[in-house]
Design goal:
heterodimer, A: alpha+beta, Neutral Protease, domain 2, Immunoglobulin-like, 21 helices, 12 strands, B: alpha/beta, Rossmann fold, 4-stranded antiparallel sheet, 29% strand, elongated
Chain lengths: 640, 310
């Protein structure tokens, strides 16, 4: 009777709020699933469960704890219940079970919703769903137990939550601690939560349940200590002494955090004084490694300086971060390290560069400068194509189209035309630009973006290109959410049209036509003629040992390739993908080379990847006609 | 017949603070017992021990002849309890409160509940969050009486009420206890409340009982006298009292007169006839009229003085 009365009371008191929380959680999950579906690089909808568990579900758990426990204890209604003929533990047990039941229901429904949003690619099986559900429930029980225990600590709970959050953040982000190796953190590991199918982390789940049980027992213990006197004391408003203790602890926490941050801080990148060239305005430092490399390095530094200084003027940028260039003499010409910490840092080997390679590297430097200038906004969609196209156009022309070398132009337009020819006729080259980069590699995507700026320059004048640069690349996005929202509110094409006076459709049509026309120009045509008439074939063999098979077939019914392509190398490059469809590009660490021939099994990669792995596979050709490898095609494979 | 309530040398400390310090008292069946004491004297703690909400450090609390602590829940079903502060759920109405509470009491009488709600003039559907303190106290009394209790425990139920609400509430308590004949344990710090309802009282101070018995003898045994300060001879007494039969409760100078409050031994009293006590006084002394409140204050002051002296 008493159980029913208490249960009925809690359901009446919190039922509506629980429904609201469920619907709110559902709405957020549905939104995340829909957004995921619409994204160019989508992830498994079950990733949304993990996303929910580390973002808004803790807030839901806090709300549940606040309503079920804190409210009862802080408002004093507990005293009404404790005077009724019922033991101390029963009301608390009912609250614990109600909270746990609600959260388990939430977990089940979240998984169900994600199952509805899944596709064949997710390969939903009952054991896998059970594993996902088990991990979700264990994590929810841990959350709930912590909140349940802390909710009984009255005004101290805020401090306890902050402490737990601080400890969790320390463990999760401390470079010296690999949180993916122990429970409960590894249960939410981003690579394992969804994609682990075979190994059930029984020990980790049990350990997490033990932690949860400890917190739960702690909660019941606190409630019983001194016949409830401790809970009653904690439920009272904070005294001056409590504030002092809280202040001391907060100060200690801040000091500790500061010490850790200081411990983890690093010295900014600085070049020494030997074999270093320096330019003050614009700020450029160059490490050239040895005196033997000084002459060529000075020449390259001059190129960077000539590109950077006028760019600053035409875009109206007051100051740009320092550029640090480090010579790495042993590297391939296009093996470039690039970072934007402490200014722009680029490590490469420019000793063997010709003018095309120099332009590639200068564009990389400018790419870094404008990325930093825009507060990191420019390299993100839908601005990335402008950044890549503009920087390359500027590196090639310095704003004067007459400076564009024909050989560079032909190679870039040939690359762009090659890519455009492999896309649907109606494809919006801007909207799909990031996908083009993923499929055909950044050199070709950059060429495509360059071709857009080149077309704009030819059709509307170089001032139009500069106007686009100013509209997209000269202003940093504010650091606030409002500034970010304001930036997003103005559509990319509107920004483009405002700057150039050219509508989206006119531009896209004219650009596509210009690429088609370019293929008829002798210089571009000769470059395209150097590409064998082949297309890539990539597949996974249905074999006991997972095997990736890739090769080439003729595009126009030929049965063999002519000797004209004898010095062309065909290469398979591959690399493991994480659980997420992040931007990814293979390097040349893992590659298989084969003669460019009509052989659909030219490359066989047997046993390198295991079942369940995700792999990026690209087929590229290297030809004297092109400075950088030309990617024929690529695929993201799921190894069955 | 065993007493309904029996505190036997009950002690309770909160940390280093002693709250109950060997409390002894007994309440017999059918009595309306007044439990009187200052704020902080230990009344609420004693009641929490009685209800089994908290346990005594030593001594024993017996309810209906049974030790409370192992059987608190079962014994609480036989007790109607009105707390000092009514921490009821503000979102409930009297109707939902009744539905909730009846789940805990097999003896719940729904008809009586409805009758009491009507008699106490409480709106059945209104949220409790909108109730005044007096309405909440009446509602708590209705809940307590609807459980058909063998013992009604009232823990300073009128605290914070205005005089009109307090009077109304006390009338209800008196009416209902007389009607039902239920044993009542009424805790308060207001002596006039006790005067209105109690058969016997205990005065608790410093965690122990300093008086237990009927109210009338307490009033009649406590006498007050005063003398002008200039006429006073230090150490003199108002009359021919035997010092060993006299307890000086309070002494002080107010309005140019030295006042004494004294409790006389039973042997000094005129007897069961209830005749007033009027000894021949020494020159300059005159009797002072004492209210029950004066008596209570004097008793408690003496105890405090004794504690301080210790």
């Amino acid at each position: 009777m008493a159980t029913r009365a208490l249960l009925g009371k809690d359901l009446r008191e919190h039922g509506l709020a629980a429904l609201g929380l469920l619907l709110g959680g559902f709405a957020l999950v549905a939104l995340a699933i829909a957004q995921n579906r619409a994204a160019a690089f989508s992830m498994s909808p079950f990733e949304v469960v993990r996303f929910a568990l580390i973002t808004f579900v803790p807030l839901i758990v806090l709300t549940v704890g606040n309503r079920l426990v804190v409210r009862e204890y802080l408002s004093g209604t507990r005293q009404f219940v404790e005077a009724l003929p019922v033991g101390t533990s029963l009301p608390l047990t009912i609250k614990y079970l109600l909270g746990a039941g609600f959260l388990i229901l939430l977990g089940v429904l979240l998984i169900a919703l994600c199952t509805l949003g899944s596709s064949a690619a997710d390969d939903v099986t009952a054991p896998w769903l059970a594993l996902l559900l088990a991990k979700t429930v264990v994590i929810l029980l841990l959350y709930w137990s912590i909140v349940f225990c802390f909710s009984l600590c009255g005004h101290l709970r805020i401090m306890l939550y902050l402490s737990v959050l601080g400890i969790a953040a320390l463990i999760a982000w401390s470079p010296g601690i690999d949180s993916s190796r122990f429970a409960p953190f590894n249960l939410m590991d981003r690579d394992l939560f969804v994609f682990e199918r075979d190994v059930v982390p029984v020990a980790d789940m049990l350990w997490t349940l033990v932690i949860a049980a400890a917190f739960t027992a702690g909660g019941f213990l606190i409630a019983r200590l001194g016949n409830g006197a401790v809970v009653e004391r904690l439920a009272k408003p904070m005294s001056r002494r409590d504030f002092v203790v809280l202040g001391v602890l907060a100060a200690a926490g801040l000091t500790l955090g500061g010490l850790i941050a200081e411990d983890q801080s690093r010295d900014p990148i600085r070049f020494g004084t030997n074999t270093v060239l320096r330019n003050i305005d614009p700020a450029i430092e160059m490490y050239y490694a040895a005196e033997a490399y000084r002459g060529r390095s000075e020449a390259f530094m001059l190129l960077v300086k000539e590109a950077e200084a006028p760019l600053q003027t035409v875009l109206g940028i007051e100051s740009l971060p320092v550029v640090r260039l480090a010579l790495r003499p042993g590297r391939e010409p296009h093996d470039i390290d690039y970072g934007t910490l402490d200014g722009v840092y680029v490590a490469a080997n420019w000793m063997e560069h010709d003018s095309y390679d120099d332009a590639v590297l200068v564009a990389v430097v400018l790419h870094g400068l404008l990325s930093a200038r825009t507060g990191g906004r420019a390299p993100f969609e839908p601005h990335h194509w402008v950044l890549d196209g503009f920087t390359r156009w500027w590196a090639e022309t310095l704003g004067d189209p007459a400076r564009l070398r024909n050989s560079h132009r032909d190679e870039l337009l040939a690359r762009a035309a090659f890519v455009a020819a492999r896309l649907d006729e109606d494809a919006d080259l801007v909207s799909t630009w990031q996908l083009v980069a993923d499929r055909f590699g950044y050199p070709s995507a950059e060429a495509l973006a360059f071709s857009a700026m080149h077309y704009l320059s030819e059709s509307a004048g170089s001032n139009a290109v500069l106007a686009v640069g100013r509209a997209f690349l000269s202003e940093p996005v504010g650091a606030s959410i409002l500034a970010s929202a304001a930036d997003r509110r103005r559509p990319s094409w509107q920004r483009f049209t405002d700057a150039t006076g050219i509508s989206r459709d006119d531009f896209l049509r004219g650009w596509a036509q210009s690429l088609a026309n370019a293929t008829r120009e002798p210089g571009v045509a000769s470059k395209l003629a150097a590409v064998p008439p082949i297309e890539a074939v990539i597949d996974v063999a249905d074999d006991a040992v997972p095997t990736i098979i890739a090769g080439y077939r003729a595009t126009h019914g030929s049965t063999s390739l002519s000797d004209a392509y004898a010095d062309t190398r065909c290469i398979l490059r591959h690399g493991p993908l994480s659980a997420f469809d992040y931007e990814f590009d293979v390097d040349d660490e893992d590659e298989l080379e084969a003669p460019c021939a009509l052989d659909e099994q030219a490359h066989t990669l047997r046993g390198r990847y295991a079942s369940g792995d995700r792999v990026y596979v690209a087929l590229e050709m290297e030809s004297p006609a092109f400075h950088q490898p030309l990617r024929l095609d690529s695929r993201r494979l799921n190894i069955p | 017949m065993s007493p309904v309530i029996d505190f036997d040398e009950v002690a309770k400390r909160f940390g280093r603070l002693p709250v109950l310090n060997g409390l002894c008292l007994q309440v017999q069946a059918g009595e309306v017992f007044g439990f009187l004491g200052r704020n902080g004297a230990g009344k609420s703690t004693a009641i929490r021990c009685l209800m089994g909400i908290t346990t005594a450090d030593s001594g024993e609390v017996r309810l209906f002849g049974e030790t409370v602590s192992p059987r608190a829940v079962a014994l609480r079903r036989r007790v109607g309890y009105v707390a000092q502060e009514q921490h009821m759920y503000p979102w409930m109405s009297p109707r939902t409160l009744g539905r909730f509470v009846r789940g805990f009491y097999p003896t719940w009488n729904e008809a009586r509940w409805r009758e009491l709600i009507t008699r106490f003039d409480l709106p059945i559907k209104r949220r409790l969050g909108t109730f005044s303190g007096g309405m909440k106290a009446k509602l708590a009394l209705a809940v307590a009486l609807s459980t058909r209790p063998e013992l009604l425990v009232l823990d300073e139920p009128t605290a914070g009420m205005d005089p009109v609400a307090r009077r109304e509430f006390l009338d209800l308590v008196r009416g209902e206890t007389e009607r039902e004949g239920v044993t009542t344990f009424f805790s308060t710090h207001l002596i006039d409340e006790i005067e209105a309802v109690a058969d016997r009282i205990a005065i608790v101070e410093g965690g122990r009982s300093i008086y237990e018995g009927a109210l009338a003898p307490l009033a009649s045994r406590t006498v007050g006298y005063s003398i002008a300060v200039e006429d006073d001879v230090p150490g003199s007494l108002p009359g021919p009292f035997a010092a060993e039969r006299l307890r000086l409760l309070d002494e002080g100078v107010r309005g140019g007169r030295r006042h004494l409050v004294m409790m006389l031994a039973e042997e000094e009293m005129p007897g069961p006839t209830g005749a007033s006590y009027s000894p021949v006084l020494n020159p300059g002394w005159r009797p002072e009229r004492l209210s029950l409140e004066d008596v209570f204050v004097a008793l408690v002051s003496r105890h405090i003085g004794a504690s301080d002296a210790r």
